[in-house]
Design brief:
Layout: E1 16-20, H1 24-36, E2 40-44, H2 47-56, E3 61-65, H3 73-82, E4 88-93, H4 98-106, E5 111-114, H5 119-149, H6 157-169, E6 176-179, H7 186-195, E7 204-208, H8 214-222, H9 239-242, E8 247-251, H10 258-270, E9 272-273, E10 282-283, E11 287-292, H11 296-301, H12 307-313, E12 316-319, H13 330-345, E13 351-352, H14 354-362, H15 368-382, E14 386-387, H16 389-395
Parallel strand pairs: 1-2, 1-3, 3-4, 4-5, 6-11, 6-12, 7-8, 8-11, 13-14
Antiparallel strand pairs: 9-10
Helix pairs in contact: 2-3, 13-15, 14-16
Length: 400
């Protein structure tokens, strides 16, 4: 075996590496080189021993020979991939060709290196594996943060019922209408529906119908062609197209204009839309979830909401209770918000006395969960290590 001793600066962080090879000279030489670079290295003399070590410990990277006794490298690779091993697996062989390399990578290897081994190639591969490992870990952390941000917190009967309904409905494509006052968490219900559905890997697109001027709502939802109106300087895909294969959340749909309602109804009926300025139909595959803080029955009676659209949207209706209707969830919500605020701001976590919880449960909570979150942040900033009943009385209601 030849390892060229040309060194390049890779600036990789220290990694835990496993070398699986039946040739002692290769194991020892690789171990010496990688340890000189600051890595922690373990070795195994055959595939079975290597597999056992790889499954027993957490490694960042694994260098595995293909031709070995007892168990060859291909079997080791397949077993590690099947076990969900997160290490970057680099296959090495003196008998490899392009087909062998492609086959290994298709089956889950991170890279393939042919013997005789080149030091530069080994170190570059290890550095790239380090970068990949860091990105994977960052992605996992970000996913956990996102999931935590949209968690439905509480064990009250009303919340337990909502979770049960959502979990049963999520697997279907049934349209859902979420009703409840501002700040109750209607978006959280919509996101749980999406995250637990077969569409979870596709986009979740949110539209606040109340925040978009009536003259722009059709362009936002259905898109427009270049030149469709004065400011349409290029083609624009609307929210329906952006949500293709996923979920479109129409928040505050009770504020949508009647003209836009008619077009939404057509999309729900025909699964087709036309961009503003075009007569061409575009087929869309989107699950629509809507939410409103209004009583749509009253809106229908007043001529402000289409009854046929209401019936299209309300296959499943979920009512999200106000916070004052679920005050038994306040202790759990406060713990959740304090943990969240601590992570986001770096402030030390604070405990909340039972008396403080009792005071919080007496408040009217007209702003619902959103207001409670603001109160939790205010108390975290203004109070000492422990939040007391006196603190709640002094700071729960902002002074004007």
């Amino acid at each position: 075996m030849v390892i060229f001793a040309i060194h390049i600066e890779t600036k990789s962080i220290a990694m835990k590496v496993l070398i699986i090879d039946d040739e002692r000279s290769i194991r020892n030489t690789l171990k010496e080189i990688l340890e000189f670079e600051g890595h922690e290295v373990a070795t195994a003399e055959d595939g079975k021993q290597g597999l056992d070590k790889a499954l027993a410990e957490n490694f960042d990277a694994i260098f595995c020979d293909i031709k070995m006794p007892v168990m060859d490298g291909n079997e080791v690779l397949d077993a590690l991939v099947a076990a969900g091993c997160e290490a970057s697996i680099v296959m090495i062989s003196g008998h490899g060709d392009i087909d062998t390399a492609v086959g290994c990578i298709k089956r889950g290897a991170y890279d393939f290196i042919q013997k005789p081994l080149d030091l530069n190639r080994i170190l570059i591969t290890l550095k790239n594996a380090t970068d990949k490992s860091s990105l994977v870990k960052e992605t996992v952390i970000l996913k956990k943060k996102i999931q935590s941000k949209y968690e439905i917190v509480g064990d009250s009967p009303a919340i337990v019922h909502i979770k049960e309904i959502v979990d049963r409905v999520a697997a279907t494509d049934a349209r859902v209408l979420i009703m409840g006052a501002n700040g109750t968490g209607k978006e959280l219900v919509a996101r749980r529906l999406h995250d637990k559905s077969p569409r979870a890997a596709a986009p979740f697109i949110e539209v606040n119908c109340a925040a978009i001027p009536s003259e722009l709502i059709e362009s936002e939802l259905f898109g427009h062609e270049k030149g469709a109106f004065t400011s349409a300087i290029k083609q624009h895909k609307g929210k329906f197209e952006q949500a293709e294969g996923g979920t479109l959340f129409l928040d505050e749909i009770g504020d949508m204009s009647l003209a836009a309602q008619a077009k939404v109804l057509r999309v729900l009926q025909e699964k087709k839309l036309s961009r503003v300025g075009s007569d061409k139909d575009i087929t869309v595959n989107v699950r629509v979830v809507a939410a409103t803080n209004k009583n749509l029955t009253d809106e229908i009676a007043k001529g402000r909401f289409r009854e046929d659209l209401y019936h299209r949207l309300s296959v499943i209706v979920i009512h999200v209770p106000a916070l004052k209707e679920r005050i038994e969830d306040i202790p759990q919500l406060m713990t959740y918000f304090i943990d969240q605020i601590s992570q986001e701001s770096g402030m030390a976590k604070k405990t909340v006395t039972p008396e403080a919880i009792a005071e919080l449960q007496k408040l009217p909570w007209t702003g619902n969960i959103r207001e409670l979150r603001n109160v939790a942040e205010r108390l975290m900033i203004l109070c000492g290590p422990q939040i007391t009943a006196a603190d709640v009385v002094a700071y729960a209601t902002p002074s004007i």
